[in-house]
Amino acid sequence: MTRLIALILAYFFLALAIVGVLLPGLPTVPFLLLTAWFAARGSDRLHRWLYAHPHLGKLLIDWEQQRAVSRTSKILAVLMLMVSWGVMYYRLNNVWLLSGIAILFLVIASYLISRPEPKSNK
């Protein structure tokens, strides 16, 4: 993989992560993890910025070192999944699609909830 392609993908996934913060239904953390992975291969500067960021850096470090997700992040993610499904319930008229999305969201929520919480480094 060339450095330029990795850099482009890092910024692409960063943009998706930022949009995911603002839009319910679009995940943030997976795009943030992809951003960090591609930034490590395409831009040392972007990679350092991500890990030094006051909010994003802690999420990345906790995941990288402990495969852990904070309780606050879990609660927000599950709430956003519930809100997203609620919006789709009122907007979509396809019971099969709604059922499939509900199952997907339940799997995602179960995985998130099953992740350990970060241990304090104090």
What is the molecular shape? globular
Structural class, please?
A: mainly alpha
Helix count equals: 6
Helix content: over 70%
Cα-to-Cα separation, first versus last residue: 39 Å
Number of domains: 2
Largest sheet: none
Please specify the SSE layout and strand pairing.
Layout: H1 3-22, H2 29-42, H3 44-52, H4 56-66, H5 71-91, H6 95-114
Helix pairs in contact: 1-2, 2-3, 3-4, 5-6
Task: Give structural notes.
The protein is mainly alpha-helical and 122 residues long. The protein has 2 domains: 3-66; 71-114. It is 78% helix and 0% strand. Helix 2 runs antiparallel to helix 3 (44-52) and helix 3 crosses helix 4. It is globular and about 45 Å long.
Offer a few descriptive terms.
122 residues; mainly alpha; 2 domains
In a nutshell, what does this entry contain?
It is built from 6 helices and no strands. It has 122 residues and is mainly α.
